[in-house]
Structure formats: structure tokens, C-alpha cells
Amino acid sequence: MAIANISLRFKFPPQQSSSSSTFNSTLTSLRKPFSIACSKPSSISAADDGSKGANDGGAKPRKLSEQSSWEVKDSEGKDYLYRLGAESDNVNIAVGARAGMIDDVFIGDFLGKDSDIVFDYRQKATRSFEHLQGDYYIAPTFMDKVAVHIVKNYLASSLNIKIPLILGIWGGKGQGKTFQTELIFKTMGVEPVIMSAGELESDRAGEPGKLIRDRYRTASQVIQNQGKMSVLMINDIDAGLGRFGETQMTVNNQIVVGTLMNLADNPTRVSVGQDWREADIVNRVPLIVTGNDFSRLYAPLIREGRMEKFYWQPTREDIVNIVSRMYEKDGISRKDVVSIVDKFPNQALDFYGALRSRTYDRSILKWVDDAGGIETLGKTLLRCKKTEEVPQFIPPEQTVEALLESGYSLIKEQKLINETKLSKEYMKNIDD
Is the pLDDT of residue 28 over 70? Predict the structure, then answer.
């Protein structure tokens, strides 16, 4: 792209110094076919305006290039540079500073000729679940509900029905809502964009709402550019948007609720701050949220047509199947799993995972003693990162007796929390 040289002619106070005459002569020698005369910082000579060159009989302004689209006006008389400034929030995450995509003069050698400036962000924004190794059990009811919701949204353009964009999965604590959903994503080959309740509040007004729209468009780009199914998932949404007691509703809470309602109503028209464009149509992205109590949420958000609700309460058969897969690598039979589940009824799924974790405590304490004791523990653990020799950790042999012992210990702690009210000890006269 050719770059025109623009010379500036300044009017200086009359001085007869060698430096000023040398400076003026240099400016004179640099003059090109058109110039901008500046007598004051805020005034521009109309005679030098390139738009009037043809009317005044002067030469036409020099174009940057015969093939350049930078100077082409649209139907509103605005050129490319104006549009570029109006759409300053670049939502195209697939281009970056790639050679051939933009003029080479803007690429340079600092980042390389083919550098994608948002590669790290795109890698962090999506999940692929390589860490989920092994054979896990997915409840058929859970699988059917999530799979149907995803498929219905991808077929929304061909189905003549009203399809809710949001699937709300709610239920008791520790029942595996998020984990079961991630297993389904891996099974179906979905690469989701996942958010948490902690991202729904900020010290800057409007930031969480913009973040949701930006993540939604990121998931849309995954569908378009990578050819993979994608989903936007928000975990524990009631913790970020729920009303508990006398909690205050913030501006960000209202904007997030309004953003989710707008996405449900207009899933293909999503702005992150730039001017609306008629051609700016994004892919419809299914939205899944999890929580414990949706009655705390704003009622119009969870109404029919916007959100489809799914209450997840695993049955005894689901719990036995999930725990059996969990203990299968330890040699615990299904019959033993049934006996453990019957010993601790009315417990969430995370309780049985905590049983297995608690049985490792004694083996870890033995490993600490073999490694040199508590005093040298810091150096020993840091040495692990440098691939130096450290005492080998031997996992304990799992038995039904050890699991039951861990279970009774956890039950005891649960009862202590429920029965021991330390606040009453601190304020004994509260009832007087």
C-alpha cells in the first residue's frame, strides 16, 4: 500500500535566524502535490482541502491505491476507517495478525509474520476435558435431557417450535450436576465455554454482562471456525444471581439477568459494544446453567420459553452405578458398594468420593515421615517439580472396613456442625 507524504507549512513569527531559515527551506523542499497549511492549531485552509481540488481546477487528490477499499464510501457516505473505529471491539478471534489477512506494513517482525495474538485466550476460554480419563457412569435420564437440549438448539432453524435457549439443571448439593454434564460434553465431542458464579460480579458496572456476551460469541466462533459443537455453561448461577435474605441486588446482577434474557430472546444477535450491523449474525449456542435453588432467581428469567428446568435427584440405582465405577479400580465389588450405600443413606454423591479420599490420610502421613518429617516437607515437595528422587507414595489398599471407618468419621463431623451452634456460646444472653 502506497503511503502519501504530507508536508506541513507552519507560519512562524518573523525571525532572522539561521536555524529558522534552514527549517523553512527544508519544509519547502519536502512539499508534495497537496499540503495542509496550519496557521493556527484549530484552523485548516479550505483552499488546501482535497475535496475541493476538482472544483477549483486543481489536481485531484491522490488515491492510496487503485485497488484499495479504504477510501470507498458506503451508502451512508462513511469510509472503511470510520467503520473500523466504530467497531473498535474486535470480536473476530480467528484472524489475529496473520500475514495476508492485513497489510504487511502493520505486521512487522516483532511478533512474527504469522502470529495469532489471541491464541492463548482461545485455548483458555474453552474446555476439552482431556483430564477425564477412565470409565465413568452417566445417568441415562441426565444424558437424555442434556443431549436433547443441545440437539434441539442446533436444529432450531428447521424445527417449527419454540425452543428454550437455556437449560437449568438444579438439585441438591454435591449430586454431580457439573461432573455429569462434563462427561456428556466429552462423550458428544462438545467443546464448551464454561463460566462460574464468581465471574458474575465486578467492581466495574456492566463488565459481567459484557463478559457473558463475549463468551457467547467465543462459543459461536468455535462452531464456525473449528467445526465443533459448543455450549456456554454457567456453574452455580444462583450463588451469583440469587437473592438470599436481605442481600442487595447490584447493577451487575440486573445487567447479567437482562443479558441472559436478551440472549434467550435473540440468540443470533449479540453485541459486545460495537455498532449493530445487519450482517452480524452469530450461531445459536445452547446455554446450560447449574444451581441448587432456582427459586432465588429472577422469575422472568426462568419462565417457560426462556429456560427449560431439569431437577436432578439421582436414584439409589444411579448412586450405586456411579459409586461402583468410582471404586472399580480399587477392587471393591458391586455387592460391597451396595452395602456401603445402605450404611449411609440420604448422602450426596460427593460423600462417597470423600470416603475414598479420607482413606488416603494415613498413607500420606507415612509418606511424610519417610520423606524426612514435617520440618523438611517444603524442600521435599519443591524437589518433586525438579524431577529429583523423592520417596515413592504407595496408595493404600482399599477395603470395605476402611471405607466404613471413614464414613463414620464424616458422619460425626456433619452432626457436630448441625448440633454445635458456636454462635450460642458466643452470645449466651441472646434469648434473654
Answer: no
Greatest extent of the chain over all pairs of C-alpha atoms, in Å = 106
Residues pairing with 237 in the sheet: none
CA-closest candidate to residue 308, choices 149, 104, 114, 124: 149
Place of cell 451487575: 252
DSSP for 154-174, written as a single string: HTTTT--S---SEEEEE-STT
Virtual CA dihedral for 96, 100, 102, 104, nearest 10 degrees? 110
Instruction: Return the sign of the alpha-carbon dihedral for residues 134, 140, 141, 145.
Output: positive
Residue type, 399: T
What residue has cell string 427449560? 308
DSSP 36: E
Of 288, 303, 305, 346, give the one whose Cα is nearest residue 146.
288
Radius of gyration for the chain, computed over Cα atoms and rounded to the nearest angstrom: 33
Model pTM score? 0.67
Cβ-count burial 248-284 (b if 16+ within 10 Å, e if not): eeeebbebbbebbbbbbeebeebbbeeeeeeeeebbb
How far is the C-alpha of 256 from the C-alpha of 253, rounded, in Å? 5
Residues 166/308, Cβ–Cβ less than 8 Å: yes
Of 360, 361, 363, give the one whose Cα is nearest residue 392.
363
Beta-carbon count within 10 A of 359 CB: 19
- Segment 291-323, tens digit of pLDDT: 999 998 999 999 999 999 999 999 999 999 999
Between vectors from CA 379 to CA 375 and to CA 380, what angle results, nearest 5°?
A: 90
Strand partners, 235: 196
DSSP 320: H
Neighbour tally for 100: CB within 10 Å: 9
**Alpha-carbon distance values, 124 to 107, 119, 121 (Å):** 25, 9, 5
Residue 134 has pLDDT above 60, yes or no: yes
Whether pLDDT at 160 is above 50: yes
Only one residue has cell 518573523, namely 14
Instruction: Read off the C-alpha cell for 169.
Output: 439443571
**DSSP result, 80-146:** HHHHHHHT-S---TTTSEEBTTB-GGGTTTTS-TEE-TTHHHHHHHB---TT--S-----HHHHHHH
Residues 6+ apart with CB under 8 A from 282: 216, 217, 220, 268, 269, 270
User: Are 195 and 232 a contacting pair, CB within 8 Å?
Assistant: yes
First to last CA, the chain: 85
